Amino acid sequence: MITIANMTFLPPTEEQIAEALGDTTQLAADIQKALTNGINESFESIPEPDYWGWLNQRKECGQTFNSFEQIASKAIPHST
């Protein structure tokens, strides 16, 4: 028998979103502004999962942009 714990999913805070974006000081000023002004309005909110949803059943720690960039299996376009 498999027991699945019902966890309470909490969407990331503005601080967590900013931390996940990482250092933006090297970006162009307009990009920095786009990422930091109204950050909660710049990204679509993660919907609250239903009872059987993955995020409701398992604890996920999230992923930073820097860790995403380091993934070895990146999609590479072969034509345009």
What does this entry look like structurally?
This protein is mainly alpha-helical. It has a domain at 16-59. The chain is built from 5 helices and no strands. The chain has helices at residues 14-21, 29-36, 39-42, 54-57, 65-69. The protein is extended and about 40 Å long. The mean pLDDT is 74.
Alpha carbon gap, first and last residue: 50 Å
Considering DSSP H and I runs of 4 or more, what fraction of the residues is helical?
A: 25-40%
Number of strands: 0
Order of secondary-structure elements: HHHHH
Describe the main β-sheet briefly. none
Write down the overall mean pLDDT. 74
Large-scale geometry: extended
Oligomer: single chain
Question: Which structural category fits the helices and strands?
Answer: mainly alpha
Give the number of helices: 5
Radius of gyration over C-alpha positions, nearest whole angstrom: 17 Å
Unreliable runs: none
Query: What percent strand?
Result: under 5%
Write the layout of secondary structure elements.
Layout: H1 14-21, H2 29-36, H3 39-42, H4 54-57, H5 65-69
Question: What's this, in brief?
Answer:
This protein has 80 residues and is an all-alpha fold. The chain has helices spanning 14-21, 29-36, 39-42, 54-57, 65-69.
